[in-house]
Each structure stands twice: as structure tokens, then as C-alpha cells.
Amino acid sequence: MTSRLPVIAALLCLAGCASPPRPAPPTLQPLGLIELSFSASGTSSAHLLPLLPQDLTDQPRGLQLRPLSVAVFSTGTRNVDGVRYISATYRVRNADADGTASPSPRSNLTLIPVSAGDTVAGTPYRAVTTFAGGSVAPGVVRSVLPGHGLRFDPLRAQPVLNPGGEDFQVFTETEIAPGSIRSGSGASLSYADLGVQTVFPYGYVVRNVAGGRTLSASPTADQFDGQVTLSVRVPLQADDAGQTPPEGTRRDPWAFRVVLLAVQDSVTRVTQSPDEQTDNTLVTQRATAETATQVTVLPGSSYAGPVPARCVNQVRTAGLAGDPGATYLIQGVCP
To answer: How many domains does the chain have?
Structure first.
């Protein structure tokens, strides 16, 4: 008589030994294109841009932002190692750009720079101008680099993280590639659908001023629960008799107009910037406070905290993905 025990055991294993379902891959859902303007003079503004050439009718219409503050400082010495840091902070309301409140709470709202339309030299900037209003050279525009909001610490005589302004977020090229960004109905979207030439693998994530990343549903007319800080740095231009004008101060980037794609990220994550790699406590505390499920680190990091980490070896800031002439915040080797 043939034993049925092996068959029964196999059936039981099929029911109980199957691999657990894989979690859904992270998704970015677009809300609309936004142009933000800010300058070292302290002025800033926000405008909704149309999603061209194909208007996505099932998408929210942007995000309502209101300028709050601009902080500026410089370090180093012109002609040697001078750098200017500019951080623009905006209040954020859980509403379309026209003020229509979202009926649902939204979390991990992120502003991702894109190259679209008339942006300059493969960057996300529609214009970068000097104090006098003249255009900044394309090569200098490509030298503008993103990061967390910083402040100058006179005791250390160096830039340090500005508490509450650590909104810089890094993605992989795969996460922002054509087809990876999905509409509210789940359809994969091409760059043509979004009206952009390219999406850059970094952004700035909105935080709730009361804590966390979620903005409540149906906010009142003046209820701006969120804030986000865009921070950039650019070298002070050297004095050069061969350029016009020769004085570096008259060629320094002063005012910026940047195009961003507002998205909702399905993953709560934080990024450790190069500015904080000497102290892993900072990103560990931030990940815990945000209940993050992922920490993104960059080459040079020694982070080994309790929240799982992934290392991204390069962050493109100008040019197309794979372009030999692309510009990067960082390029290195992950351990």
C-alpha cells in the first residue's frame, strides 16, 4: 500500500511554506509642475505650471505653497574657496495650487527638480541671474548644487545643519526613470506625459510643522500645515580680467527660477547628506522621528543605524541620465 503522507506533506507545504507576498514597489505619484523663485535678496514666489504636452486629467493640480523666508550666508574667500549658500523655505497647504483643499490626507509630498521647456543647459533652472539682472553663464548654472538647509555656526566657523531644514531627499535613477512615476490610476507615465525632458534623482520633502510627514485632509483656507526648504550652494565667482564684467561680485548667481515636479512618495525615507557624514547621530534621530523605513546614504557614509539603509552612488544634477557630460552632486563607490 502506497503511503499518502508525502503527498499530504507536500500539500501542506504548498499552503504554509509559500514565500510571503513581496511588498509593492515604491511609487511616486505626480501632482503637477511648479515654478519656485527665490533670491539672495530674500524674495521668493511660487507658480503652477501646466503639465504639457499632455494634460493629465486624473491628477491633482499642483500644490499650494506660500513663501516664508530666505536665508543666505557665504563661507571661504573669493578667488580661493568661496561658496554662497541660499535656503528658501515655503509653507505648504494640502491643496491644489488654485486653493482647492485635498479631501484626503497626503504624506511624503516631495518637490523633485526637472528639466522642462526652456530650462538652462540641461538644469532645472529656467533662469539664474545676477544682482543686476544679467544672465549667469550656463556653466555656472550647472555648478549650482542642492543639499539640506544649512546655517553658519560662528563657533565652528563652518556651515552646519539647520534644524527643521533637513528636507533634501535622494532617489535612484530607476525610481525616477520614464515609466516609474505613476498616475493616480496606476498608469505608468513617460517624460512626455509629464511635459519634461528629464527628472533629476533628488528632491525636497515636505514636513508637517507639528511633526511627521502627513498633511491633514480638507485644511481650512489659511491652514498651511507643511513646510519645505530648498537649499542650494554655488561657488563665488572669481575676479577675472578676461570676463565681462571682470568683478566676480557682479557675476555671482543671485536669483533663481527652478521647475519642480510635486509628487507623493509611497515610502517614508530620509537622506544623509555629505554635510552630516561625520555624525551619524543626526540622520539616525531624524529617521526615528519620521518613522522612516529607509535611510539613503551616499559614498563616504559610515551609517549603520537601526533603520535599513541603501547607498546611492551618484546624484545627477544636470544633463540626461547616462550622458557623459552630466553634472553630479556626488559620484563615488558604495561599499
So the answer is: 1
